[in-house]
Amino acid sequence: MNLVAVVKRDCPTCSLIEPVLKQLDAAMDVTLEVVTQDDPAFPSGVTQVQFDDDLFYSYHHDIETVPTLLRVDEGVEQSRLVGWKRDEWESFTGVPDLGPGLPDWRPGCGSLSVDPSLVDELRTRFEGHRLKARRVDLADLEDDIEAMFDRGWSDGLPVVPPTETRVLRMLQGTTRAPDEIVAVVPPDLVECTVEKVAINAVLAGCLPEYLPVVLTAVEAACTDEFNMHGLLATTMPVGPVMIVNGPVRQRIGMNAGVNVLGQGNRANSTIGRALQLTVRNVGGGRPGGVDRATQGNPGKLSFCFPEDEEGSPFEPLHVERGFAPDASTITLFPGEGPRGLVDQLSRDPESLARSFAACLRTVQHPKLPMVFDAILIIGPEHGRVFKEAGWTKAQLKERLHELTLLDGAEIIRGAHGIAEGVPEGFKDVQLPKFRPDGLLIVHAGGGAGLFSTIIGGWANGETGSQPTTREIRS
Question: Is 409 in a helix, a strand, or coil?
Fold first, then answer.
């Protein structure tokens, strides 16, 4: 039997079992090799000792704890034990009476190959070859932050230098291969790999656990359904708005409460930014180029928030759109900046619905029907009004569609002295403000304040953009 024991002297359990290693080395049916991480003279009295001074063996065999005992056949690991437990070691090795006088069990210690102070250096040394992106060398006197501004990699705010170490650390957030093609990114229609997304996630300031969300957002944005190219090229002040649903919200620490659409939460702020930087740096979507927004809006830096599902009176957005409650999803919406909606007095759902409808009628222009979708973000105090009255989301949507029907005579061109509007031929009909599925309702915000928010959309239909939902995978 061929065995390999990985140990280090600076581990009480490894030092404790030094007599056991000598027993195994002396056993007739066992060939033992000891790989020692920190001292070539440890353990004593063993024939074959390999000093793993560069931690190559430990890193490539995924040693997380020492001692680890491997059973090896023709150089291939068959099974392993971690720590010291006498009966398991005897069964594993076939050698009886191991370690007489020793405690029956002791836990192991952390391997040097997973030491937080070393693991990034080891990953860079041993896995740097996996990265295919071009390396950019900076002159000794260049400031790295200013250099990235000068090269056009920034959205106008400082970005994090995407060193090999940081990119490899970011890639730990996904099981997908670095060279896997995620999407073809407009406007330049460039193939974008997982590695390229990871680079832009580093630039944006993401943590590795955010990467699956960013990857899914890039996939969703680069579809005909969402039409990122059209969203870039429009002169309207719109960009991708990302709504996150499911368990991932809490797992990565997103904020669905106080100041949900504002600053202060790393996940909210950097995930949306990573999508925008990927479109900019990979796809070439830069302001003044294909990005032709007349005025734009601050949300084009980053616009990402989670729904407060736990506090909501309604079913979550992703469930409404056909996904399982325990699925994690992102929904991309082509939206403008948020506009506040104030109603401090309504305490019954009909009155509040009428307030919502009056504000929703003004999305982009009060005389334009069915051209633009919208998101209605209902705050907790407004949400409580509907919850206490027993209204469902479907009931509220139906009432809002009724209340936002537009009389043709009020919205034809020239009515009320406003040239904008629909052609004269519509003066005798009613037209809905929104398509049947063009109004998204979500729940988010702090617990105090009778406020909600509207996010107006961009042109919908075949020449515009559709709200797009995708499930997040690791």
Answer: helix
Q: How much is the pLDDT for 408?
A: 96
**Residue 1 banded pLDDT, cuts 50, 70, 90:** confident
Among residues 183, 177, 295, the alpha carbon closest in space to that of 234 is found at 295
E-strand ranges in 61-189 read 65-66, 68-73, 76-82, 84-85, 105-106, 109-110, 181-185
Are 78 and 185 in the same domain?
A: no
Same domain, 328 and 400: yes
Q: Between the CA atoms of 54, 57, 60 and 62, what dihedral angle is there, to the nearest 10 degrees? A: -110
pLDDT of residue 462: 82
Of the candidates 381, 243, 254, 265, which has an alpha carbon nearest to the alpha carbon of residue 319?
Answer: 243
Contact between residue 369 and residue 422 where contact means Cβ atoms under 8 Å apart: yes
Instruction: Give CA–CA dist 297/313, Å, rounded.
Output: 30
Strand partners, 422: 412
Interatomic CA distance for residues 228 and 187, integer angstroms = 8
Task: Say if residue 463's pLDDT is above 90.
Answer: no
In a domain, 391, yes or no: yes
Phi, psi of 11 (to 5 degrees): -145, 115
Phi and psi at 76, nearest 5°, equal: -110, 125
Q: Residue for token digits 């049916």? A: 29
The predicted structure's pLDDT at residue 53:
97
DSSP state of 291: B
What is the domain extent for residue 99? Answer: 2-112
**Band (263; pLDDT cuts 50, 70, 90):** very high
Distance CA 4, CA 33 (A): 5
Q: What pTM value is reported for the model?
A: 0.92
Shared-domain flag, residues 104 and 153: no
- What is the tens place of the pLDDT at every residue in 383-398? 999 999 999 999 999 9
pLDDT tens digit sequence for 48-72: 999 999 999 999 999 999 999 999 9
Domain count along the chain? 2
Strand (E) positions, 84-236? 84-85, 105-106, 109-110, 181-185, 190-193
- The answer on pLDDT for 273 being more than 90 is yes
